[in-house]
Amino acid sequence: MDQKLEMLRRVPLFAACGGREIEELGRLADEVDVPAGTELTHEGRHGGEFFVILDGAVRVDKGGETIRVMGPGEFLGEIALVDGGPRTATATTEAPSRLLVVGHREFHSLMDDHPSIRMAVLEALAHRVRNLDQHGAH
To answer: pTM of the full predicted structure?
Structure first.
């Protein structure tokens, strides 16, 4: 559980969460082992899972082109975790991987039970949008 909580603490989306909130989130996160070649997300399809990579590698493709390969400590699916909308990219394991998985429904129940988590997530998303605006401004 310690490694799981440490990985969740590193996710910017949960940066403002306290120890108790991270522990609650840790209880919701399932640890799964998946073989190489497993499609985790598919661009344009709806999905509601959030993934933290514990071990392994995940290739991210957008529009049929590889945009990056992610490794341990990185995460994906945070947008769908919040809004349940269509995936912005396809993610496929490149190697056997161990992941933490949090589902949309469970996460929203947690936010309902712990408004401080909802506030922390909203602040993290606002910060991310603000940074995108600053990088995109000419």
So the answer is: 0.79
